[in-house]
Amino acid sequence: MSYYDQEHLYDLLPAVYRVRDAGLGYPLRDLIGILATEAQGMERDIARLYDNWFIETCDEWVVPYIGDVIGVRDIHIGRHARYSRRTEVANTIGYRRRKGTAAVLEQLARDVTGWPARVVEYFELLNTTQYIVNHVRPHSLQSPDLRQVDALELLDGPFDSIAHTGEVRRIAPQLGKYNVPNVGLHVWRLTAYPLLAADAREVPDGTGLHYTFSSLGNDTALFNQPRTEVGPAHIAEEINVPQPLRRRRVHAAKEAYYGPGLSLLVARDGIDIPPEDIVICNLDGWLHAPGAGEVAIDPALGRLAFPPGEGPTESARVSYSYGFTDDIGGGSYERADDLSDIAGQTVLDVGEGRTFATIGDALTHWSAISQPSAVIVIHDSHTYAETITATIPDNVRLEIRAANEARPTLLLGGEMHITGGEGSAFELNGLLVANHPLRVDGETNRLSLRHTTFVPGRELQVDGTPVQPGQPSLILDSDQLEATILRCITGPILSDENAQVGMADCVIDAGARDSAAFADLSGAGYGAPLVIRHATVIGTIRTRILSLGDSSLFLGTVTAERRQQGCMRYSFVPVASRVPRRYRCQPVVPEGSTPAQAVMAQRRVEPRFTSLRYGDPRYCQLHWRSRREILRGAEDESEMGVFSGTQQPQRTDALRTRLDEYLPVGLEAGILYARLRLETGTV
Fold it and tell me: What is the CATH number of the domain that holds 438?
């Protein structure tokens, strides 16, 4: 309790002054109140002084000052990156005590960039004559053992153990690796997102025994959920990084990967299958049939098979991790800050063991209670196969959201049709929606989509190709609509020309660069005025007014009807586009260039992607060999496009700065982005 509150200080004054103060309307008491507030603030500061002596407990503003005391140079990464300066300052003394060792370089990479990392000293993998007196390396054989298939699977990757002939190209620009002074820091740009008790998707082959881990029915690589390393001197192994699970690795160490809280778990009719009943195998073509009492898992393809007569009668639920670059499109990540305030609104809970079993049941109850402003919360990551229609009264808000860190799948049996009255609002948050589009019409005033995926192409085949490429995901048929789309993945968007659409940190995927990604309701005319920031658009855009295009990648032509309004800035825009004034956009076409020269200028800087197929963990991720103008072309010198917020260039630069301080003299380090080897199967 503070002694500097207003009443306590006021009572310390002589009574004569308090009597006069009362006669004047208590101006002195008000002054004492102001002084008491300042005194309380000073009292709190004094109380915090002891905590601020220590990096673990100090306020955030103190961290740079403690860093200055021990000589930690400041680095700038950006506000979105997973970087904690507190962590680096706290570990600096430990870094310096182990300066020059491989382990400290690996830990430094993790702490500075937030990416999992593994360090490789490439002199250990050189195919050279060995000095047998005091430097024998029996693990580095001149010729690999071709019978060791597990080692051959890791060839040329971060866990490669096979000797190579020497290279003279430098490792810093990622040209060569195998040389005496080279040290490689392999970093994983992907994150493994865990899904708990999700519904496996039955393969429609009539057997009732074959399932995919993906709720969309496509093959997907299952990722390892990284384990914390055992100590600061430990070098990362496969189990410590978020990479696709390998069949042989999981088979050899099943107890480390399968079970509650680990990377894999299967439940049949609500009962977890024990590890001894699990068989890890290749289910390509479904050629392998598990024996009686066994369940087969293919982690490379994300497939699941039961033996004849032992398939699930109610449900097959799987817990696993999938890989992706950032917190976009819904997923099992923290998004509490992006959940709308629902104070005073009716909350309808959906899920197993909750008030309502389905979204339709919750909507029926909502209609029965006179349709107040309400929020339908889905508390699990199950699959809901439903047809959803709703009519929202005037000035009423309806939201369907996934609970924080849940990602339910909604398989629509028809259009999700929302008709709203004047002043009404509809919101989706955290869902994966497939099969059919969302149509919003009537006089709906506001639409908000956050952390939601409308599967591009609506459905996926087993190999991940879209079933209906180019078909719209959102149909905005209201001339009063203001649509806000944040951190979403969608197919094409068709809108009334009088609506308003704003989006940020999104992917719009029309399936091809010449297909319509944004247009009017017919798909051929000019759509609503558009504001688009930090987005990747696969397809063409036709809009009445491009109010703002910022730090985005447009892979198809962009056409604005009114080019006197708006601005295009820090973006890649094809030269054939017709947009408002450009500011620091790519490609830069010199004045007076011929059409052929303009095309060449575009080809020189055209962005390269690791993958443009939805369902691939590397979806819309820029290839590291893209031009610098693209990789550092956003306003904050990050990359253009949907993953601008990951601050990849800044994180890489910060790590290079730190490596200069801790790398032994004469050695050269290269930052290598770990590459994935993904498989595709046949039905």
Answer: 2.160.20
Query: How many C-beta atoms lie closer than 10 Å to residue 604's C-beta?
Result: 12
pLDDT at 1: 52
Kindly tell me the burial class for residue 361, based on how many C-beta atoms sit within 10 Å of its own C-beta (0-12, 13-18, 19 or more). Answer: middle
Task: Find the mean pLDDT for residues 5-23.
Answer: 85
pLDDT tens, residue by residue, 138-167? 777 777 778 888 888 888 889 988 888 888
Q: What is the pLDDT of residue 77?
A: 61
Mean pLDDT of the residues in the chain:
91
In a domain, 249, yes or no: yes
Rounded Cα gap, residues 636 and 650, in angstroms: 9
pLDDT exceeds 60 at position 79: no
Q: Yes or no: say if 280 and 247 are a contact pair by the CB < 8 Å rule.
A: yes
Task: Determine contact, residues 214/302, Cβ cutoff 8 Å.
Answer: yes
Are 545 and 561 in contact by the 8 Å Cβ rule? The answer is yes
> Is residue 312 located within the same domain as residue 269?
yes
Cβ(31)–Cβ(6) below 8 Å: no
Is 614 within 8 Å of 601 (Cβ atoms)? no
Helix (H) / strand (E) containing 11: helix 6-11
How high is the pLDDT of residue 81?
45
**440: pLDDT strictly greater than 60:** yes
Which tokens is 276 given? Answer: 């001894």
Residue 665 lies in a domain: no
The whole domain housing 269 covers 191-324
- The token pair at 628 is 């610098």
Answer whether residue 369 is part of any domain: yes
> Rounded to whole angstroms, how far apart are CA atoms 36 and 458?
63
Give the angle subtended at the CA of 473 by the CAs of 469 and 479, to the nearest 5°.
Answer: 135
Residues 341, 297 share a domain = no
Kindly state whether residue 624 falls inside one of the protein's structural domains.
Answer: no
- Nearest one of 492, 528, 533 to 513, comparing CA atoms: 492
Q: Pull the structure tokens for residue 257.
A: 């990967």
**Cα angle at 378 between 373 and 381, to 5 degrees?**
160
Note the pLDDT of residue 50. Answer: 86
Looking at residue 244, its pLDDT comes to: 95
State the number of CA atoms in the 13 A half-sphere of 134 facing the CB. 0
Q: What is the DSSP letter of 519?
A: E
Q: Quick one: tokens of 625?
A: 């060999």
Q: Which long-range contacts (CB under 8 A, 24 or more apart) does 32-41 make?
A: 32/6, 33/6, 35/9, 36/4, 36/5, 36/6, 36/9, 39/4, 39/9, 40/2, 40/4, 40/5
Beta bridge partners of 317: 199, 267
pTM to 2 decimals?
0.89
